[in-house]
Amino acid sequence: MTAATGLPGAEMRAPAIEFRGSAIIGGVTVFDGLCLVIPAGQWTCLLGPSGVGKSTLLRILAGLDDDIDGDRTVSTNDNMDLDGRVALMAQQDNLMPWLTVRDNVLLGSRVRREPADMARADVLIAQVGLADHGHKKPGALSGGQRQRVALARTLMEDRPVVLLDEPFSALDARIRAEMQELAARLFAGRTVCLITHDPGEAARLGETVYVMGRSGLTAIDPPPTPVIRPYDAPNVLACQGQLLRVLREMP
Amino acid sequence: MTRLVGVGVVVGIIVGLWQALVVLADLPAFILPSPMRVGQALWGNAELIAGHAMVTLTEVLIGLGLGAILGAATAIGLAMSPLARLVVRPMMVLSQALPVFALAPVLTLWLGYGLGPKVIMALLIIYFPVTSAFFDGLMQTPRGMLDLGRVMQGRRWQIMRHIRIPAAIPGLASGLRLAAVYAPIGAIIGEWVGASQGLGYLMLLANGRAKIDLMFAALLVLAVMTLLLHLGVDRLCSYVVRRQEN
Predict the structure, then answer these.
(1) ipTM over 0.90
(2) Cα dist. B155→A57, B11, B160 in Å?
(3) DSSP3 helix / strand / coil % (chain A, rounded to 5)
């Protein structure tokens, strides 16, 4: 039952990812000569001001780059393509309002025309704390609950690589902290790339932390303690302060 | 209940104004018969009018059903295939330059005086609004949902079926609401051009025989029928759209 615990199966070993190159959208260069290394099976956090191309980078990794020009390579340490090995979770929960919680979690199997694993969906829904809400539609849930459904849907995909685009930024501080803990636990062992605007989030979750600016990436040493770190630990707070300073001093 | 009272008041005012116009302007009955006379004509010819109304209703419902199916299918086809958009869309827009009414005599020529040409008129007149409203909806699926479907490696048709079509139901609903009002126009035009049954035919017949009160009675029934059809489709669409999210 490795699948139900949220751990990727042995055949889906989490890869390390390396990105090199540029992105041009509609003739405008978003970034150029960027090199990003995402270590295997860890949380990599990407901070930076709006507009430097963090989301563009994530879209490229997700294979959603039809309208993004530029020369670039995305490689993995197992030399396999990322297609079909990626799950995506965004700031918007992107739940289908016409589907129940359970059917939203099962969306992947629907659109791939695979048999739906109801039992596993129910396990995951229970793991994100929504055991009694499986039959409800998203409209009946709070913002935090909806993002939990999105989390369960992402887990249901059981992909070794998880791309997170500010998934917790619309939540209030308390729910956000809970979601960070839940995600850290459930995504353990996967290669996770998290885009965030919150230095505190990067300090809690990042095993590798980059600040992305116009001139490229700056690596910041995260606290040496294992994730998920307590939000009030001195080294987490210090890292949070350091990240904020780097962000503020950027050109 | 208050809505029902509101409708009653509005109808009362209209009938009152109508009666006042007839009395004050001293209009002869062959120009505008009084509400009373129309009511009498309606009562006296109830069976006749009901028979013709059923014919028109049948034409409208079949036209509405076929038009909705064809329009929805076209919209899905256009949304699925860029090639279809390139080829079919200009043709559709161009076809709108031709007044559909002008086709009525041609259809009657080809298909005779029966149900066929009226159904096709109703269908033609609603085809474009249904297609275009649904197509717009299908092309406006929120980007995040589409991204999700693609990252999940969804098949194109399954993404259409499970994401794009459900997300476009409100668009289809607004197209159908319009269609419910347009479809009777098509059927009536068809009947005017050549028919032996239907409310449009009855109106022309009554007019020709100077039975103006009967003509107005038929018109009244047509208006009520269209209104009820619109209300029914509106309710059905609201129900479906609401059900989607609750």
Answers:
(1) no
(2) 24, 54, 9
(3) 35, 25, 40
Residues of A with CB under 8 A from a CB of B: 59, 62-64, 83-84, 86-88, 90, 92, 94, 96-98, 107-108, 110-113, 137, 139-140, 157
**Strands of the sheet with A191-195, listed across from one edge:** A86-90, A161-165, A191-195, A43-47, A208-213, A216-220
Q: Which pLDDT score, from 0 to 100, does residue A10 have?
A: 42
Find the residue in A nearest to B144 (Cα).
Answer: A94
Helix axes B169-193, B199-208, angle to 10 degrees: 30
Mean per-residue pLDDT, A9-26: 82
Nearest to B123 by CA among B138, B149, B104: B104
Three-state SS for B179?
A: helix
Can you name the residues that pair with A219 across neighbouring β-strands? A210
Q: How far apart are CA B59 and CA B51, in angstroms?
A: 13
Residue whose pair of structure tokens reads 């695979």 in the numeric block: A114
| CA dist., res. B24 & res. B21, Å (int) | 5
CB within 8 Å of A138: residues ≥ 6 apart: A93, A95, A96, A97, A99, A101, A104, A146, A149
Q: How confident is the model at residue A79 (pLDDT cuts 50, 70, 90)?
A: confident
| Overall pTM > 0.90 | no
Condensed to tens digits (0 to 9), the pLDDT of residues A100-133 reads 999 999 999 999 999 999 999 999 999 888 999 9
Q: Which of B145, B167, B245 sits opposite A139 (nearest CB)?
A: B245
